[in-house]
Amino acid sequence: xxxxxxxxxxxxxxxxILDRGFVVDSAGALFWxxxxxxxxxxxxxxxxxxxxxxxxxxxxxxxxxxxxLLARLIAFYKPRAVMALGDSFxxxxxxxxxxxxxxxxxxALQAGREWIWIAGNHDRDLPAGLEGEGRDEVSIGPIVFRHxxxxxxxxxxxxxxxxxxxxxxGRAGSIRRRCFVANATRCILPAFGAFTGGLNLxxxxxxxxFGAGDCRAHVLSRGEVYxxxxxxxxxx
Length: 236
What we know:
single chain, alpha/beta, Purple Acid Phosphatase, chain A, domain 2, 10-stranded mixed beta sheet
């Protein structure tokens, strides 16, 4: 199956979490075929307008760009349900700043499918007037979806929040790219939003989750997904 982001000759990357298979899309999403569930994290809609309010001016197109990419994924996978793992909105007033066209785009993407908004630390409450179900976390069989990963062992956890990136040595120096961080029991998704930064997976914040390097980075670069051992990932 090719990526929704770009046609590719590489076979699709598949993560096994508690023996459940999830397709890793190079756009930064997971797709669970068995449940026809598309999973994204940290959309951060209206981050650009939040910065503009503080006189830090970024191009005001982040929400539209994020929605356009999400629309391509939905058209490709045709999911029964979409789950956004928290921090879908950059702050509590993001809904007030949503352009009418972006609000209409969200409604169009939601039409005919289940839509679950997991609460994040930036968006405990859903903006008024948007469809979808707000939840703190969701369990489907042994898999648990939440925004912030728990420091204690949490088999079956799929979460966001940390915005993982990996730095990897290349022929002309090193590159730093978004990545999934995963082992056989849990996975942290990269941020999907257009204006989101990233935290190096070698940061101490990941140690309670994966111990001494018990994970791999699934690095997103140029429409491909590269499976990189933790030991080959460099600190910043």
